Amino acid sequence: MTTLKDLYTEELQDLWSANEQMSEVVSAMADKAEDMKLTDRLSSAKDGIDQHTRLLKSLLEESGAEVKKEHCKGMEGLVKEARKHAVDSDMQGAALDVAIIAQYQRLCHYGIAGFGTTKAFAEALGNDVAAQKLDAALDKIYGSDDFMTDLAERSRNVDAIA
C-alpha cells in the first residue's frame, strides 16, 4: 500500500469480510432473541448488512480494484465476543435480549467506523458517487443502532432488572 486509493481499496475489502462475518452472527442472534421487536430488527439488519456487502463489491468493481475480500480480524474478535456473550450464553428472557443488543451495537459501531473512514477516503479521492452511497449505508447503520438503544432503554433493560 502506497496511496490513498490503496487504502480505500483495502478498506472496502476489509469491510466486505467484516460484513459477511457480522451477517452470520446477527442471524444467529436473531434466532436466539426472545423479544419479537428485537428478532424482527435483527432479521431486517441482516438484510441490510447483506445489501451493504453487495455495495462494497460494486464499489470495488467501479474503482477498478481487485474484487476480493481481505479477512477482517477486528470483526473476527467482535464476532467471537458476540457468540460468547449472547449466542452461546445460558441467559434467557430480557437479560439475553440485553446481551444481544449490546453485542449488536458493538458490531454496528465497528461498521460505523469502517464505513465512515471509507466514505472519507472516497471524498478525498473525489469519488462523490461512492461517498454518497457509503453515506446512505452509514445512515442505515446509525438508524439501526439508534433503534437498539431505544429498545434497550425503553423496555429490555427495564425488563432485565426484574
Provide the fold topology.
Layout: H1 4-32, H2 36-63, H3 73-87, H4 93-124, H5 128-161
Strand tally is 0
H/E order of the elements? HHHHH
Count helical runs. 5
User: What class, by secondary structure content?
Assistant: mainly alpha
The backbone outline, from C-alpha atoms, is elongated
Assembly type of the shown chains?
Answer: single chain
Radius of gyration computed on alpha carbons: 17 Å
Q: How far apart are the termini?
A: 53 Å
- Estimate what percentage of residues fall within beta strands: under 5%
The whole-number mean of residue pLDDT values reads 94
Uncertain runs: none
Bin the helical content: over 70%
Largest sheet: none
Structure description:
There is one protein chain. With 162 residues, the protein is mostly helical. It is 85% helix and 0% strand. The protein is built from 5 helices and no strands. It has helices spanning 4-32, 36-63, 73-87, 93-124, 128-161. α3 packs antiparallel against α4 (93-124). The N and C termini lie far apart (53 Å). The mean pLDDT is 94.
